Amino acid sequence: MVGQLQHYSDLIVQVAKDKDKSAFAELFDHFAPRLKGYLMQQGADQGSAEEIAQEVMVTLWRKAELFDPKKSSASTWLYRIARNRRIDRLRRQRTAELNPDEPLLQPASVPDVTVEMDARLREQRVRSALSSLPDDQVSVIKLAFFSGLSHSQISEETGVPLGTVKSRIRLAFARLRQIIEADSSVDVD
To answer: What is the chain's pLDDT, residue by residue, as a tens digit (189 residues)?
Structure first.
């Protein structure tokens, strides 16, 4: 057992010094499945455990020179890296799940009652004014502003000449303006 532990430590040293691919392959074959099993025992799902185990092995390849066989064995070093990676992932998930600055988690602003009341009053006035217009003018206004059609599209859809569509919209706006302005001046008094 001690000889085997020393063997894996020696392999890490070979990877550090020479980027020895066969030494790395032997380490990968031995430790990757064991790290995955360890991570799953710690509560990681299979996919996450496999990803973290691969990250640990990539860390071994890139940072093998940081391994000190005097301080720990190869397995202790790799399992510590795996444990720390898992903890880092859990912290990131928690942070991502509940970011206190997330706009959706902020309380909704209290609407200004006067602005809301003004908007409702304006909507009532427009509806009332629309009901006093001739049907041909109301239909082009609805198509232009509620359906979002262009004047040309309204002309095509209704079969009314383009100039007539424009005239009806212009006349409707002039009439709406008169009605709403007259209604507003009555409220002010």
So the answer is: 557 768 889 999 999 999 999 999 999 999 999 999 999 998 889 999 999 999 999 999 999 999 998 988 899 999 999 999 998 888 887 766 666 665 655 666 666 778 778 878 888 888 888 888 999 999 998 898 888 889 999 999 999 999 999 999 999 989 888 888 887 665 544
DSSP structure string for 124-176: HHHHHHHHTS-HHHHHHHIIIIIS---HHHHHHHH---HHHHHHHHHHHHHHH
> What CATH number should be reported for the domain whose range is 2-98?
1.10.1740.10
14 φ/ψ angles, rounded to the nearest 5 degrees:
-65, -40
**How far is Cα 86 from Cα 108, in angstroms, rounded to an integer?**
36
Angle at 106 between CA 101 and CA 110, to 5 degrees: 150
Quote the tokens at residue 42. 């710690």
For residues 165 and 127, the answer to whether their CB atoms sit within 8 Å is: no
The CATH 1.10.1740.10 portion of the chain extends over 2-98
CA distance 180 to 77: 79
In the chain, residues under CATH classification 1.10.10.10 are 113-184
Closest by Cα among 57, 67, 51 to 17: 67
